Amino acid sequence: MIDIDHRNVLLVSGSPRKNGNTDRLLREIERALGERGVATTFAALRDYSIHSCTGCEHCRVDETCTEFYDGMHLLYPLIEQAAGLVVGSPTYNYNITPEMKCFIDRFYPYFHFGKERPGPYSSRLAGAGRKLVTVGVCEQNEESEMRFTMPAMSDAFGAIGYEVVEELAVLGHFAKGSVQGDEDAYARAARAGATLADSLQR
Ligand SMILES: Cc1cc2nc3c(=O)[nH]c(=O)nc-3n(C[C@H](O)[C@H](O)[C@H](O)COP(=O)(O)O)c2cc1C
Q: Which of 17, 23, 138 to mutate for ligand 1's pocket (most ligand atoms within 8 Å of CB)?
């Protein structure tokens, strides 16, 4: 495990659409973090080849994924080093995109399970002061249309050992980049970045 850096944030976009609404909201959060002296890395999952987890369970012994030597191994060191994580996904059919789901499932090597199944489990990323911001964006204007999008990220990363400091759900954006003129959404994104920066100081 790489040493954790408490002034470092990894931002991960799960949108297949380059420079779309998710990317733009994450970039605004990144800008706010930079203003506060926090180092950032932006990663778009569409640029990485990431296999879905097959449940081979080899990682229980190996403590990393030895089934696939793919793009996730480029991200594991960044994940471990950054105390802050920002994950964003558009709503696709009430849920996160397959890219984001695949990314989340590949955190499985960080879990410790005992011999007893089902039984207690813990995460090697927990207890280190890791903080998370989740970002979701969807076309419809009612929050219910997002359905599983926000909990799919927040609940999973909560179990992985991150404290959720902000959930940013942005509604009413369909066209690529339409969020650009949405002052309220940008203000909320900037605030989310500031909240994350402040939380990492503690
Ligand atoms: C396959 C697909 C499924 C979608 N499902 C939903 C949905 O269930 N609810 C919704 O409000 N918007 C839905 N949308 C619209 C997107 O969430 C919306 O266009 C979003 O702004 C895209 O973000 P992006 O530009 O970051 O890719 C869907 C879009 C696609 C392509």
A: 138
Nearest to 194 by CA among 166, 170, 171, 164: 166
pTM: predicted TM-score of the whole model, two decimal places: 0.98
Residue nearest to atom 25 of ligand 1 (CA): 20
101-110 pLDDT per residue, tens: 999 999 999 9
Give the distance from CA 185 to its chain's centroid.
19
CB 28 within 8 A of CB 186: yes
Q: Whose CA is nearest to atom 1 of ligand 1?
A: 92
Element (H, E) at 139: none
Say if residues 163 and 134 touch (Cβ distance below 8 Å). Answer: no
- Residue 30 and residue 46: Cα distance in Å, rounded? 19
Instruction: Please tell me whether residue 69 adopts helix, strand or coil conformation.
Output: coil
State in words which class domain 5-201 has: alpha beta
